[in-house]
Amino acid sequence: MTYLNLVNNVLRRLREEEVASVQSNTYSKMVGDFVNDAKRIVEDAWDWSALRTTLTITTTDDIFNYVLTGSQNRIKELNVINDTSNIIMEYRPAKYFDEQYLVEDPIKGSPKFFTYNGVDSDGDTQIDVYPKPDGVYTLRFNCVLRGDDLSADADDLLVPAMPVMHLAIAFLARERGETGGTSAPEYFNIANQYLSDAIALDAQKHPEEVIFYVP
């Protein structure tokens, strides 16, 4: 569903006129803001299948710091693979990397470990790898990548639309104080039910992530 479709769905449910663009008037712009607030909450509620992707890094000899371009610091790693050496890379804390690079003489070779190291000037997440690459390696960063706010009318929503739509309605109902029949708390309950159902449907694609194993 597009940004404009979402906004018009919300407007209709609030007995307001549809618009040709989200930027048509002040009220539709505010609806768009609440849609994006709802989108952020729904995206953060679960590691949605639609948000799972792979970012690829190609290393350079003697360079250990790399940028996950496009991550915008809203990323959750699922696993990291050194595809060239067929290694599942392991996370190590920053202290470990400080010891290897600042206290010891760092070894060079195929990267086996990674850690996070802030963000770059564009706001994208940076990682360090170790050992320091001695050549070209392809590293696959499998992750959940939560996107930017919707802005253009044709921007597509990737996560389920119903919880986003009804959560935005709940925000607007609370903001305006009346909706002609349904109270804001009722709208929040409806939105939470849609969200719960959407998570349950998506979770069956990844049952291993919701099963607790007792060692």
Distance between the termini: 43 Å
Largest sheet, described in full? 7 strands, mixed
Based on Cα principal axes, name the global outline.
elongated
Radius of gyration: 22 Å
The SSE string, one letter per element, is: HHEEEEHEEEEEHH
Query: What is the number of beta strands?
Result: 9
Mean pLDDT: 93
Read across the widest sheet, the strand sequence of neighbours is 1-9-3-4-6-7-2
Strand content: 15-25%
Unreliably modeled segments: none
Number of folding domains? 2
Structural category is alpha+beta
The total of helices stands at 5
Share of helical residues: 25-40%
What topology does this entry show?
Blueprint: H1 3-13, H2 26-45, E1 52-58, E2 65-67, E3 75-82, E4 87-91, H3 94-103, E5 108-109, E6 113-119, E7 125-130, E8 132-133, E9 138-145, H4 161-176, H5 184-203
Parallel strand pairs: 4-6, 5-8
Antiparallel strand pairs: 1-9, 2-7, 3-4, 3-9, 6-7
Helix pairs in contact: 1-2, 1-4, 2-4, 4-5
Structure report:
Helix 1 packs across helix 2, helix 2 crosses helix 4 and helix 4 packs antiparallel against helix 5. The protein has 215 residues and is of the alpha+beta class.
Short overview:
The chain is of the alpha+beta class.
Structural key phrases:
215 residues; alpha+beta; 2 domains; seven-stranded mixed beta sheet; two-stranded parallel ribbon; 9 strands; 36% helix; elongated
